[in-house]
Amino acid sequence: MCEVSDSAVLVKKRVTLDDVAKVAHVATSTASRALNRPGRINAETEALVRQVAIELGYERPENFWLRTHVLTQKVGVVIALEQYRMLAAIQDKLILEHYLPVLYPTVPNQSARIIKREFNNVDGLIIDNPQTPGRIHLEIPNTEPLVVTNCVIDEATCVVPDTEQGVAVLLTHLKSLRHRSITYFYAKDCWLGESILQALQSGCEQAGVILHPVGNVGNNLEAGARAVAAWCRHKDSAAVFCGDYSALGFMQELNRSLKMLVPDDVSVVAIGDAFIGRLCPSVTTTLEVPYRRIGTEAVRQLLSQIYHPSGRERRVKPMKMSLVNGGTTGIS
C-alpha cells in the first residue's frame, strides 16, 4: 500500500466509500452498512457492494495509512452549537468514513488555545468561522491537517459559500421586482457579512442600484428590531440582513411600531439558513448558505489531507448559494 523510507513517503490514491457507492449505484449509507454491518440490507445488494469494494481495492481508513505515529480515528470539530445543520452533516460524513467526531464548542478568546492543545489528540481539525485567524495561522504547524469553514484564512483549505455568485442571484431577483435601493445590515466581525458586502458593493455599482450598508447588526431578534431606526433614514425599498433572526426581528418591529407590512411597504431578504425562514408565518425570502454541503465538503478535504500528507496548501472551495423565494419580497 505504501513504502516508507528515510526521504519520502509514496502513497497511491485512496479509494473512498463514496467511490464504492457510486460504482455500485447505491447510497453511501447503504455501502457503509454493507461493508460494516452485514445482514442489515438486502443480501443481493450487500454482495454487490462487497464485490465492487474488492474490485476497486477499497480498504477501511484504519488500514490505509502507515505513519510513524498511530492515527486516533478522531477528528476535532471547533464550531458554535447553533450551527447544528452543518455540525450534523460533518458528523454524518465522519461516521460514514469510520471516524469519531470530537466536538469543541467555540468559546470567545479561547479558540487558539483549544486548537493548539487538541492537535495532540486528533488526526485533524475542522474549524468553523474562527474569530482569531491570525493567531490560528501562527500556532498550527503547516504539516497538520486543517480545514476552515465559513471564513478565508492564509495557509489553510477553506470551504465557504460562494458569495459573489449568491449576490448575483439576489440582485437579479430584486431587480426583476424593480427594486433600485437596498439597505444591507451585517456584523462587521463576521467573514460572511463582510464578503457579502464586498459582492453587493460591486454588483450594485454595475447594476445601478443604491446601497446603504449598516454594520454592527448581530443576528438576533433584538438587533433586528433596533435596525428599524436605521432603515428609516433612507426607507429603501429592500432590506437585506446577513442573518435570519435579525431579519425576523426587523419584520416584527416594523409592524409593531410603524404598522408597516412586508412585502407591501418593504421587501426583506435574509442571508443564512432557509430552514429558519420556513418557520416564519410568511416564509422569509432567503439567500441560503449551504451549511450541510459545506460540512460534507470540509470532511472530504480534511480526510484527503490525512491520507495524503504533503503539507497544507491554501485552497478556497466555494459552494453554490441558492435563493429560496418566500413571501417577504414583492414588487417595489
Automatic annotation (TrEMBL):
Gene3D superfamilies under this entry? 3.40.50.2300, lambda repressor-like DNA-binding domains (1.10.260.40)
The residue range of the signal peptide is: none
Which intervals hold domain HTH lacI-type? 15-58
User: Pfam families recorded for this chain?
Assistant: LacI, Peripla_BP_3
| Record has Transcription as a keyword | yes
One example GO MF annotation? transcription cis-regulatory region binding
Keywords associated with the record: DNA-binding, Transcription, Transcription regulation
Taxonomically, which superkingdom? Bacteria
Concerning InterPro entries, the annotation shows: HTH_LacI (IPR000843), LacI/GalR-like_sensor (IPR046335), Lambda_DNA-bd_dom_sf (IPR010982), Peripla_BP_I (IPR028082)
Presence of the UniProt keyword Transferase in the record: no
List the protein's name.
Transcriptional regulator, LacI family
Ranked from the top, the taxonomy reads:
Bacteria, Bacillati, Actinomycetota, Actinomycetes, Actinomycetales
